[in-house]
Amino acid sequence: MRRMGILEQYHSFLPVTPNTPRLSLHEGNTPLVHLERLSETWGVELYAKMEGFNPTGSFKDRGMVMAVAKAVEAGSRTVICASTGNTSASAAAYAARLGIRAVVVVPDGRIALGKLSQAVVYGAEVLAIEGNFDQALTIVRRIAAESSEVTLVNSVNPYRIEGQKTAAFEVCEQLGGPPDVLAIPVGNAGNITAYWKGFREYFDSGRIGALPQMHGFQAEGAAAIVRGEPIAEPETVATAIRIGNPASWKTAVEAAKESGGAIDAVSDEEILEAYRDLTRMEGLFVEPASAASLAGVKKARQQGRIAAGTKVVAVLTGNGLKDPSTAMEAVPVKPVRLPNDWEAVEEAIRKPRGA
Ligand code: F0G
Questions:
Q1: What angle, 0 to 180 degrees and rounded to 10, lies between the N-to-C axes of helices 288-302 and 268-282?
Q2: Pair 235, 222: CB distance under 8 Å
Q3: What is one Pfam family matched by this protein (predicted)?
Q4: Residue 69 labelled as part of a binding site
Q5: Which residues of 138-174 are buried (b: 16+ CB within 10 A; e: fewer)?
Q6: Contact call for residues 243 and 186 (beta carbons, < 8 A)
Q7: How many CB atoms lie within 10 A of CB 38?
Q8: 333 pLDDT band (50/70/90 cuts)?
Q9: Residue 283 marked ligand-binding
């Protein structure tokens, strides 16, 4: 099947007009992978929606292609966003594709190296503030509100949600119907909002006959929704979801409530354990924030909140190469340094690993 990105593939569900630029970097159409070993270990039928396969390595591309296309359609020549990294990489790429300006505001020193390098190399203007994501978002919202020439492309821009809902469509097509449970990391809470909108639209159009339960997972040190109040200084190894006051808080809670699901928290330890399980048992490398959904599935199974045999899709939001530093810290086994010598190498592989 010929697929040309989500604007073409799903135009009938999207606000695409004859004047919308035909923008695409071949986002969407990401694999849904059956996790056979983890399914067996955890007693569920588990699939991973591999959003790291998108052109800039995260799910943000689905929303960004729509938001940047609509910005240009409306005559804007500058997009701006706050970001923990992935949004900035994606905004920078799509802005470059259409030859417009991208300004990204990030928390200084707190975004993964891969993401920062993407924003820089795509040619965005990168402003690193002495503050966190929530503070950066406050700043860019104000700038966009005060200038009609600058378009805000964070997920408070409704076109971002429109684009991102297409992942729910794909899940239903790939699975031949909706899953019982959709497990998803929650940061600024745009993506859980988008999936729920997508599932409901497919349900309303008669394409699916049931709706999944939405299970969102925040990192414990940044679990504002779970605690019921904003967190001034959020902290987690999963820097992508280090957010203390999610902009789409209300719609995330609605998604969980209406679907009979929940928003819960997972610890950094649980996140890193799921991160290692996924790479070693399934050969799939995602970034730490993505592993929050898997950690959540494991925890919910142990607590009996997800029943045995449940068909679960975990959204794995970003590619593991985004955050090489955490990868090197997360595993005890390091590369073995040896002289340039045949015998030394032979000797090293004769010994079992770690001995
Ligand atoms: N996973 C990854 C890899 C992310 O980058 C993000 C958000 C999320 C999950 C959470 O999604 O915000 O829609 O609830 N990253 C944003 C950014 C905040 O700036 O790149 P959400």
A1: 100
A2: yes
A3: PALP
A4: no
A5: eebbeebeeeeebbbbbbbbebbbbbbbbbbbbbbeb
A6: no
A7: 21
A8: confident
A9: no
Q: Which residue has the tokens 């240009």?
A: 72
CB 55 within 8 A of CB 93: yes
Query: Which ligand 1 atom minimizes the distance to the CA of 194?
Result: 13
Does 19 carry a binding-site annotation? no
Please give the CATH topology (third level) of the domain spanning 6-57+158-327.
Answer: Rossmann fold (3.40.50)
CATH topology of domain 60-152: Rossmann fold (3.40.50)
Classify the phi-psi angles of 109: left when phi > 0, otherwise alpha if psi is within -120 to 50, otherwise beta: left
Average pLDDT over residues 161-173: 98
Among 83, 134, 186, 191, the mutation site with the greatest number of ligand 1 atoms within 8 A of its Cβ is 191
Centroid of ligand 1 to alpha carbon of 26 (angstroms): 20
- Among 317, 319, 321, name the best residue to mutate to test ligand 1's pocket (greatest count of ligand atoms within 8 A of Cβ): 317
* Binding-site residues, ligand 1, Cβ < 6 A: 58, 60, 83-87, 155, 185-191, 240-241, 287, 289-290, 317-318
- Same fold: 6-57+158-327 with 60-152: yes
Using CA atoms, how far residue 294 sits from 55, 183, 191, 277, in Å, is 23, 7, 16, 9
Query: Could you give the residue ranges of the DSSP H alpha helices within 228-341?
Result: 249-259, 268-282, 288-302, 324-330
Residue nearest to atom 8 of ligand 1 (CA): 187
Residue 248's nearest CA partner among 189, 191, 195 is 189
What is the Cα–Cα distance from 182 to 18, expressed in whole angstroms?
A: 34
Is 189 annotated in a binding site? The answer is: yes
Amino acid letter, 226: V
* Residue bearing the CA closest to ligand 1, atom 10: 187
Sorted by where each begins, the domain ranges of the chain are 6-57+158-327, 60-152
Provide the whole-model pTM: 0.97
> Which among 195, 191, 152, 15 has a CA at the least distance from the CA of 7?
15
At 31-79, the pLDDT tens digits run 999 999 999 999 999 999 999 999 999 999 999 999 999 999 999 999 9
